[in-house]
What does this fold into?
Amino acid sequence: MAEEKIVNAVPEEEQEQDTNELRQIRVEKLEALQAAGNDPFQITLAEQTIHNAEIVERFEELENTDVSICGRMMSRRDMGKANFIDVRDLTGRMQVYVKIDEIGEESFADFKKWDIGDIVEVKGFVFRTRRGEVSVHAKAIRLLSKSLLPLPEKFHGLTNTDTRYRRRYLDLIMNPDVKDTFVKRSLILREIRNYLDSQGFLEVETPVLVSNAGGAAARPFETHHNALNEDFKLRISLELYLKRLIVGGMEKVYEIGRVFRNEGVDTRHNPEFTLMELYQAYTDYNGMMELTENLYRHVAQAVLGTTKISYNGVEMDLGKPFEKITMVDAVKKYAGVDWNEIETLEDARAVADKHHIEYEKRHGKGDILALFFEEYAEEHLIQPTFVIDHPIEISPLTKKKPEDPNFVERFEFFMNGWEMANAYSELNDPIDQRERFKAQEAQLAQGDEEANTTDEDFMMALEYGMPPTGGIGFGIDRMCMLLTDSQAIRDVLLFPTMKSID
It folds into this structure.
């Protein structure tokens, strides 16, 4: 038997040459193919009868059966008149045995000139090698697309995170786990829709370009429409248009879409991200808690096959009833401060100073309570937890609690110390809502760039009458991070926002 030579993503003779030289060699190979009338880029159709993973799964039934597979050639073991190559498709890799006697001398000579990274079609039969590996024995092999740039060196892979995010296509080629993450993301979105559709919700679409970017505390991006000669903003939330639909009699609606916030970038924040909001007439925030539990359980079970998930080695159980705690009780538990004893704004400022909580002059008593919660409580909320009953100062679109108008019927859903969802019993009193907007505009005048402004068209809609309504917003990207054990939001965004390379 001829001496075996293993060819990896970058052949040894290529490693000393720079990318430009390597590209030129491959371009010359392409030109030779074109001159011989074998231009792979003229091929418009290939035959793919099965994916690689299915061949492995169904080997007993497919053994000795003819198949046709397509994919990228990722490695080659050269044994002279026979080669083993790895061909990778969407579902994984398949070993292919290519022998000169089977495909013919001319085809084999052409095949030996192909490069790692080329995309090929293989027709042959399924068999198992003497070492027990499920493989395809090639009867014919065809070059479908020529790779002009060499792939990263196999054993070191593509590890630079900045390059991985900028060149996601290369990341997907070199790191199969990355592809698995985005397949799961797609399944998560599908199962969210399946569950909501089964509950009678209607998926809708609302504007991305808006005159008034309300519904959340965030700075919007601004742009200008030339034809209308009018300034617009990119939406920061889906809320106000979806509530208009509730006014219009569409009793259960949801939207999954991109929103845009002009804020910092970190492991859990990207300037554009995927948000889902839903609104249901004739229910309240308790109904939204029930929906959240059921939705999360359904998605985890459907995508992962279990309601127990692990993130960074920490197990979280979605199968148990979710915990529930008020914001006041959470601050008492984790900061040792009983907010029921804080009677005035001066008291709140004094206790904040004592605990080194930074606040601004415009902050009210409720704002300072929220700052305490963020500083002391959030990180402890690992298991699924509803934090309920927020101060009115930070909840301009929420119904007051009848028994205590300083607080509202709102919850935030936490897992792993992260806010995963935000829900209200929606404020449907137009007179109260206008006063809340006025308070927000006063905050804006005092320097709060994230405060809302009055949306007059939304106010008109409320005056026609909106039924009692429960609403919730889910951070889809964070949900995907937890369910795929991904460490940063950029790991679940195919093309995250990146600073331009000068």
The longest helix spans residues 176-198. Confidence is low (pLDDT under 50) at residues 1-16.
